[in-house]
Design a protein that fits this description.
- The structure is a single chain.
- Helix content is 36%, strand content 11%.
- It is of the alpha/beta class.
- The chain has one domain (6-220): 3-Layer(aba) Sandwich (Rossmann fold).
- Helix 1 (15-26) packs across helix 7 and helix 7 (175-184) packs across helix 8 (209-220).
Length: 232
Amino acid sequence: MSNSKKAVVLLSGGLDSTTVMAVASSRGFRLFALSFRYGQRHSIELESAAQVSKVLGAERHLIVDIDLRAIGGSALTDDIDVPKERSQAEMSSGIPTTYVPARNTIFLSFALAWAEALSAEDIFIGVNALDYSGYPDCRPEYITAFERMAQLATKAGVEGTTRIKIHTPLIALTKAEIIKTGLNLGIDYSLTHSCYDPTSEGLACGKCDSCLLRLKGFSEAGAVDPLKYAVN
């Protein structure tokens, strides 16, 4: 069922953002995919984003260049080792070094700008507050605050012509539930890439937090992860 409304979808090329794009499509939105080349060591995810965008029928896929390496402060953008083989207890306590300072705020700001330019009222983002690695900008209260700010910070919001809604359909789901949702929507997860520290050949390391959460999710969903790993 189509509602012909435009939606800006933040698309990294990973499992969660791909599932979110499929959810937006299933709800009848016209898809405008937004990705970032921000100096991340796992830039291979952008190849996945391009494939996902095409397969799911995005009307446009915009890749914005931002050099967050100039700021650093993260294992994804700086000379800091990506943590490997952490236990569930370790992953669920504290904020890890893979946190990129203010990343979702930066990304959502670009999404907000594009949504306003498109006269779109809807933004989709794949944040998750359950099986996540302690990121502060994945919490429901953060999304609520940003959505409230969006009404104050835009011409469309101030004039009352547009009220931005930030959709977070995965925020209360486990990784297994996210995977089941995606499989039910027909997602080919072999197109996605989740690893924070892939090999030079593009294989997932199988040891970083993102790989471990993904593998755990597929196992609990009773499904096989089609991603190629350097180790199993």
